[in-house]
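Reminder: ligand-aware prediction takes two inputs, not one.
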Amino acid sequence: MAILKHADAAPANDTAAAAMSSPRLALDAEEFRRQGRLVYPVRPAVTPGFLSRQLPDTAPEEPDVADLAAALRDVRDLILPGVTHWQSPRHFAHFSATASNVGALGEALAAGLNINPFTWAASPAATELEVVVTDWLGKALHLPENLLFSGGGGGTLLGTSCEAMLCTIVAARDRKLAEIGEDRIGDLVVYCSDQTHFSFQKAARIAGIRKGNYREIPTSWETGFTLSPQALLAAVRADEAAGRVPLYLCATVGTTPTAAVDPVGELCAALTGRDVWVHVDAAYAGAACICPEFRNALINLEAVDSVSTNPHKWLLANMDCCALWVRRPDALVAALGTDHDVILKDPTASEMAVVDYKDWQVALSRRFRALKLWLVLRCHGVEGLRGFVRGHVRMAAAFEAMVRADPRFEVPVPRSFALVCFRLQHTTNEVNKSLLEAVNATGRAYMSCAVVGGVYMLRCAIGNSLTEDRHVHEAWKIVQQQATAILLLQLDDDAEANTHCCATDVVDAKLQDPAANSLLPLGHHHEVVVPI
Ligand code: PLP
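Here is what comes back for the chain with pyridoxal-5'-phosphate:
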């Protein structure tokens, strides 16, 4: 809207004005849909530099509103073909970035308003909406009262989980150093498991934690790759014995590789009597706790200091949106607050207890994220969001059942929420890696991988707003098809290497297996790549 107004105000010439209003030049919805459906693979088959080679080295010197149409054509012809389509119903990689109409509308409204609510005074409604909406979401997730404004804690909306970790480590650090002296920063130790997201390591490094004081506690098959309270306690005691100072634990509810859930209550119990800040990273799986049946994942949080989850992952709030709740907002403000900024001070606000969100985050400026989250909660309702999450979990269970029904595959770790980890059994990590590459090369499904306990697994994370049963079934067929082709290729190689064995016998025997054979591409079985 702002661009159009600008163009109307100062058109370069009549042609430019005509170009701006010509529907033929717009990226019209029908064309967009046609191209999206017919042309774009989920993950583009492009090589590095593909776009920069097609664009000029420098920005245009002169403004040229007439070029908006040409620019939009570039979006269609150059940029969209190189985008990984996270909103494709066939996107099963990583964890989804869910989208909704109201989420997008909230983003659009925020972009149009373009406000900067760094203090209450800088935009009272934006700040107060954030206070309200973080309490709403916290209540919907059944967080303990002490993490909500209504219970003395409070929430904020940041961009990412990494920011949530960084802000809370810094709060914990400053609180601890105020007690033991700033010169002991080198003694502070932080704890997590080997399944914790790498962004925690980044946050710890930025917060000044020595590399050697980052404890990544190993997990195992026995504990389902969750952090063992006993192992945590042993590590903490060893550090204390060596004169170091345990500072912060990052527990995860829904780890990135397998969506494992650390036993938060037991971890807190193991740390009882020690002043260790406990943060719960529930970036993905926090959303599921909106459903009573998954609430177990986020229980016994009374003793935790902070929790974060990303509504942009699984709660229909378009990118970006990370909700962080803290039990002691004053600790955040003490570490991140600034009060010598006379210009920002509002005399009315200073006399009252208002939230200045600039003091809860790294930067001064911030986005109006509350609007989209409020719209999502208001329009979908908590029950609507439960239905959304449950739909994905049901589809993931169906996918899991299909994997288990094919004897060539295994599900090495239990399905957690809507994430299914699976692999071809009795074969190598390399073969499974080839399978993932082959599946993704079809352009009809996009999955990712995890390596846990030394085992390579494919990850099918169902969570896209547009994904339906048929997409899940199709994805599984693609996996089976590619697996068949790869296994047959492998048999050929094995047979060639084994002079005592007739290759065609082996292949023929394999072809008798209906599960392996049913989806074999027509033609020569060396044909691995399935055309889109
Ligand atoms: N924590 C977990 C468990 C995640 O899965 C992810 C990303 O997927 C992150 C943290 C990092 O999230 P962000 O990109 O919001 O920093």
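Residues 1-27, 500-532 have pLDDT under 50 and may be disordered. The longest strand covers residues 245-252. We will return to this case in the review session.
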